């Protein structure tokens, strides 16, 4: 196994707002790879300069970074320059998928369903946004993940405060039409969508705490949908990934309304790999244990 992959760096930690989650993901991946006999080593870009990867002879990188600086094309570009193959999507797809606004523009241009939205600024007419999108409204930073800085707004007079919170994380803030329905996520590995996971959070509030640090959220996998419908949704998610240029692995989030209409929410190009994470959960149902999943992701590492 060591000879197959060479010296591998698992990048985790970093300096984004999602550092804490990345540390959990990276430690789990590192343990799995080492347990499989891979010559894998921890590497935290917040503590060591990336150029050390080249100096120390690393031949492949598993990216377990989340958020800006790790999931947005920045690290991917540096690794391209150094000629070190890495897991997940390339520079363009990583940057595009991290940008919720431009992701939606691409999806809409390709005729894919996604909730209506508005970009918020300090001088936004809050009442007009509420009238246009309807209430409730979901407000979130354009370039953050893990529900960082996100707020569900139920009254127009709450919009400014929600914008102010999101603006602490990002200069770009988006307001999104709130779609009521079943929350689903579809991981994918290479060109195959894995089984859907249904997410049932307390009071429908799937926030940062409920994602990573409590056991109050229920995850159903298999998701319980009719096989034909699940197949259609998996196909939709794969199409949404392809038009963004995603590769390797990732996870698409969506909502399914009571009358059967799907709405794409976000694309994650470096999803969590923690004990609460959805990609490993789905992979298990597909017959892949955590160690095998990590090895398959690492196997897909590439340049360009």
UniProtKB/TrEMBL annotation:
GO cellular component: cytosol
The organism's place on the tree of life at top rank: Bacteria
Keywords, sorted A to Z: ATP-binding, Cell shape, Cell wall biogenesis/degradation, Cytoplasm, Ligase, Magnesium, Manganese, Metal-binding, Nucleotide-binding, Peptidoglycan synthesis
Main location: cytoplasm
Function: Cell wall formation.
Record-given protein name: D-alanine--D-alanine ligase
Cofactor note: Binds 2 magnesium or manganese ions per subunit.
Cofactor(s) needed for function: Mg(2+); Mn(2+)
The family this protein is said to belong to: Belongs to the D-alanine--D-alanine ligase family.
Gene Ontology BP term (one): peptidoglycan biosynthetic process
Active site: 18, 146, 277
Enzyme category, top tier: ligase
Pathway assigned in UniProt: Cell wall biogenesis; peptidoglycan biosynthesis
Residues that, per the record, bind Mg(2+) 2: 266, 268
Residue ranges annotated for the ATP-grasp domain, each copy included: 104-299
GO molecular function, one term: ATP binding
Reactions accelerated catalytically: 2 D-alanine + ATP = D-alanyl-D-alanine + ADP + phosphate + H(+)
PROSITE patterns, per database record: ATP_GRASP, DALA_DALA_LIGASE_1
Record-linked Gene3D superfamilies: 3.40.50.20, ATP-grasp fold, A domain, ATP-grasp fold, B domain
HAMAP family per record: Dala_Dala_lig
Residue numbers binding Mg(2+) 1: 253, 266
Pfam families hit by this protein: Dala_Dala_lig_C (PF07478), Dala_Dala_lig_N (PF01820)
Encoding gene per record: ddl
Localization (cell): Cytoplasm
EC number: 6.3.2.4
């Amino acid at each position: 196994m060591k000879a197959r992959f060479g010296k591998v760096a698992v990048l985790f930690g970093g300096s984004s707002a999602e550092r804490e989650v990345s540390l959990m993901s990276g430690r789990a991946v590192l343990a799995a790879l080492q347990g499989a006999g891979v010559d894998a080593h921890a590497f935290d870009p917040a503590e060591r300069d990336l150029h050390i990867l080249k100096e120390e002879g690393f031949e492949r990188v598993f990216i377990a970074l989340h958020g800006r600086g790790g999931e947005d094309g920045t690290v991917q570009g540096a690794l391209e320059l150094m000629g070190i193959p890495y897991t997940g999507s390339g520079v363009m797809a990583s940057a595009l998928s991290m940008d919720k606004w431009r992701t939606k523009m691409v999806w809409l241009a390709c005729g894919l369903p996604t909730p209506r939205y508005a970009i918020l600024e300090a001088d936004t007419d809050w009442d007009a946004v509420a009238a246009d999108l309807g209430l409730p409204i979901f407000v979130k930073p354009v370039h953050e993940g893990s529900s960082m800085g996100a707020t569900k707004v139920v009254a127009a007079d709450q919009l400014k405060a929600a914008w102010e919170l999101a603006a602490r994380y990002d200069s770009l803030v988006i307001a999104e039409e709130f779609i009521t329905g079943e929350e689903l996520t579809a991981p994918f590995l290479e060109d195959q969508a894995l089984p859907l996971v249904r997410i049932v959070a307390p009071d429908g509030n799937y926030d940062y705490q409920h994602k990573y640090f409590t056991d109050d959220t229920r995850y159903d996998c298999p998701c319980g949908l009719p096989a034909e419908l699940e197949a259609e949704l998996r196909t939709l998610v794969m199409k949404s990934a392809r038009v963004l240029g995603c590769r390797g692995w990732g996870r698409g989030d969506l909502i399914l309304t009571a009358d059967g209409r799907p709405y794409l929410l976000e694309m994650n190009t470096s999803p969590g790999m923690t004990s609460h994470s959805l990609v490993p959960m789905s992979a298990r149902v597909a017959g892949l244990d955590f160690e095998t999943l990590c090895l398959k992701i690492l196997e897909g590492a590439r340049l360009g």
